[in-house]
Amino acid sequence: MTLETAQQKLQESAPDRAAAPRPRPVPRVLSIAGTDPTGGAGIQADLKSIAAHGGYGMAAVTALVAQNTCGVRSVHTPPAAFLAEQLQAVSDDVAIDAVKIGMLGDTATIHTVKAWLEEARPPIVVLDPVMVATSNDRLLQPEAEDALRSLLPLAHLVTPNLPELAVLLDVPVAAGWNQALEQGRELSRRHGLKVLVKGGHLHGADSPDALVDAAAGPGRDVVELSSPRVDTENTHGTGCSLSAAMATVQARTLDWAESLRRVKHWLTGALERSGELDVGRGHGPIHHFHHLNPADASPAGFSEDLWRRTSSVREEILALPFIRELSAGTLAEEHFGYYLAQDARYLNGYSRVLARASALAPTEAEQLFWAKGAHQCLEVEAELHRSWLAGRAVSGELGPVTKQYVDHLLAIAGGGGYGELVAAVVPCYWLYAHVGEQLQARHGGDPDPHHPYAAWLQTYGDESFAAATRQVVAIMDGAAAAETEAGRQRMRTAFEQSCRYELDFFDAARVYA
After folding, report:
1. For residues 392 and 337, is the Cβ–Cβ distance under 8 A?
2. What is the maximum span of the chain, computed from C-alpha positions, in angstroms?
3. Which helix (H) or strand (E) holds 93?
4. What percent of the chain has pLDDT over 70?
5. DSSP of 362-422, one letter per residue?
6. How far is it, in rounded angstroms, from Cα 251 to Cα 144?
7. pLDDT in the model for residue 205
8. Local structure of residue 215 (DSSP, 8 states)
9. Are strands 98-101 and 125-127 parallel, antiparallel or unpaired?
10. For residue 359, how many C-alpha atoms fall within 13 Å in the half-sphere facing its CB?
């Protein structure tokens, strides 16, 4: 079959799949790229990245590359007509949620991919323009570079390194980060797509990345993220892996900025843990599955350590006059009323935080758990108003401690990662379950039904609440296992701060009621 015949068949048979994307729990992601027999780059790295982020990976091969961690030895490019058949075979049968495009070695290959994109119209296209080697040698002939630029209007995101960014614009390589951002803006303006400007080629203690979208307008056109630069020689396939991960995560989130946050966090860990693989004598690969093989001997050790760290806070809570009097049934009604009114205000904010946790959760089970928790918060808030607060002269004004606690959670929800957010919300479960268990023990089981606060004691001493608490602690351990050490430290800080806010919240009625 000739190239022209194959392209004609593409145009005749490819279905219309240009509909707006919708979030996919398991995205079907196609990599169009070359190979790497050592597994660190090309489609092998792409498929690992896709799997690492919960996607189903597919691949169409553009080039067979004899390479290893020390360098490329030779490249065999199959006929472009055969690439067209591969692409057609996939899109004839499978609904594609995202496409990552990597190495396209010549003009015929590029034109074939362009023809397929124009017909298949995948909802998400990420282009990694493989144009410049690590040695700074140009990998494409000038006419192929021009052909590659013609793909840009068909892509949603392009992920060049700084030399490739310069080639796409036909300008000198950016000398610094600010110049790189300006080049990213210019490329975005010219071609109407988002540009991921990567700072990996720069020097310095930090490694910045930025999502640039000129269409967003001044002041909103750059989302910049930075992390400490990882000191490692194991960088083989980093660009391939990042672009494939971005395609996969975007198909799940439909939020480019959020996708970058998740992928950058994952990539930092993959670089930090790359030495564990011990692959090759040159620039080794990253550790795509580091989050599934945590450095800590036992993930459960994370929560156990936090529980030990905060033992003094639990002792202080149980010693508070509010808790002692609540248990004895002697707590002044005005103090309990203030506490419940503040709890209602807190739960309103807490529900928004749990909704954010649901949006960030990496699995469908965790998404559903947090979404259910957010809904239950609103139900409890409404029930408090109906059953206890209604008809009583209790101020509903937001108290200072409540505001500080909710602001703390919302700040993490707005700017932190999933692990940090989980750690921040866990104390509300875990400390209440602990207090409920301790107070229930003091009463020898269920409290006297005539106890003025029996309903509260039963709610937090109930087995169903204890089961939910065990689940949320397990989620936290899983999130900690997927984190870098720096991420786990942020989780510890968030958890300990929330514990202190819980102590202050229990004591607030005595101070402010």
Report:
1. yes
2. 89
3. helix 80-93
4. 89
5. SSHHHHHHHHHHHHHHHHHHHHHIIIIITTS----SPPHHHHHHHHHHHHHHHHS-HHHHH
6. 29
7. 87
8. G
9. parallel
10. 16
Find the range with the poorest average confidence among 82-96, 242-256, 457-471: 457-471
The token pair at 294 is 């945590």
CA distance 127 to 46: 13
Contacts of 305 (CB under 8 A, 6+ apart): none
The edge-to-edge listing of strands for the beta sheet with 98-101 is: 71-76, 56-68, 28-34, 98-101, 125-127, 157-158, 194-198, 206-212, 222-228
Q: Which helix (H) or strand (E) holds 30?
A: strand 28-34
Report which secondary-structure segment, H or E, holds 75: strand 71-76
164 HSE (CA, 13 A, CB side): 26
Confidence of residue 463 (pLDDT cuts 50, 70, 90): confident
Distance CA 315, CA 503 (A): 10
Residue type, 379: E
Cα first-last separation, the chain: 83
In 3D, which of 162, 173, 249, 225 has the Cα closest to residue 197? 162
Answer yes or no: are the C-beta atoms of 413 and 353 closer than 8 Å: yes
4 vs 9: CA distance, rounded Å: 9
Strands 157-158 and 125-127: parallel
Number of residues that make up the chain: 513
Where does residue 330 rank: exposed (0-12), middle (13-18), buried (19+ CB within 10 A)?
A: exposed
**What residues form DSSP beta bridges with 138?**
132
List the one residue out of 219, 183, 208 whose CA is nearest residue 260: 208
333-360 and 418-442 helices cross at what angle (nearest 10)? 140
Query: In the predicted model, what is the mean pLDDT of residues 133-148?
Result: 79
- For 310, 357, 403, 405, 474, the CA distances from 500, given in Å and listed in that order, are 9, 21, 14, 9, 22
Answer for the pair 225, 186: CB distance below 8 angstroms, yes or no: no
Q: C-alpha angle with apex 253: 161 to 166, nearest 5 degrees?
A: 15
For strands 71-76 and 98-101, give the pairing. Answer: unpaired
Segment 368-417, tens digit of pLDDT: 999 999 998 888 767 766 676 666 666 778 899 999 999 999 999 998 99
- Give me 340's structure tokens: 């419940």
| Number of Cβ atoms within 10 Å of the Cβ of 167 | 21
C-alpha 216/C-alpha 231 separation (Å) is 34
Contact criterion met (CB below 8 Å) for 334 and 513: yes
Please give the full DSSP string across 142-210, using - where no structure is assigned. Answer: HHHHHHHHTTGGG-SEE---HHHHHHHHTSPPPSSHHHHHHHHHHHHHHHTSEEEEE-TTS-SSEEEEE
Q: H helices of 208-362, where? A: 238-253, 256-272, 300-309, 311-319, 321-328, 333-360
Distance CA 366, CA 404 (A): 27
Structure tokens at 395: 């101020």
Catalytic machinery residues: 198, 235, 237-240
